[in-house]
Task: inverse folding
């Protein structure tokens, strides 16, 4: 199995024509450069988001071109510190044009534990991680039967997931009750 990583991985997000979808079933992602922003978030310190600017700019560029980037994050409730950080980060990605939805892990039965991007419903990138949750790269999948399975999982996850705003409202309601 050959993994796409580095600049070649980044090129995946410039090569699709219409849609890109990600299913995020993992509890945590250990991304280089994210430790300091996570620390600042947990300490309540300001953040200029410079570390995330390339992604936010790319999302704005795609939105301006009419490309649709969306994802479903499967999260455990109560939220971990990392999931709270991701929920905060999502606000800026959504403002830039990405559509991020949330699904409580307790309601995710039947969805694959596979973390993947699906591009134009034609090909996928199955993400591979090491034991420390660091992304190693992506395996490119073009087998039509596998792509159809991943598209069905996308549709199922998207149907069950709720917007960030609704998820926050549900969390607030649960903490009040």
Result:
């Amino acid at each position: 199995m050959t993994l796409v990583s580095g600049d070649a991985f980044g090129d995946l997000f410039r090569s699709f024509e219409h849609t890109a979808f990600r299913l995020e079933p993992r509890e945590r992602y250990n991304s280089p450069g994210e430790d300091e922003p996570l620390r600042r978030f947990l300490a309540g310190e300001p953040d200029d988001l410079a570390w995330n600017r390339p992604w936010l700019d790319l999302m704005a560029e795609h939105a301006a071109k009419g490309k649709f980037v969306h994802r479903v994050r499967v999260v455990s409730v109560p939220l971990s510190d990392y999931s709270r950080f991701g929920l905060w980060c999502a606000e800026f990605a959504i403002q830039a044009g990405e559509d991020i939805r949330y699904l409580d892990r307790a309601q995710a039965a039947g969805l694959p534990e596979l973390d993947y991007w699906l591009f134009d419903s034609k090909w996928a990138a199955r993400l591979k991680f090491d034991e420390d949750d660091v992304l190693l790269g992506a395996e490119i999948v073009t087998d039509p039967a596998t792509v159809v399975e991943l598209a069905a999982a996308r549709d199922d996850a998207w149907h069950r997931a709720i917007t960030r705003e609704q998820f926050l409202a549900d969390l607030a309601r649960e903490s009040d009750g």
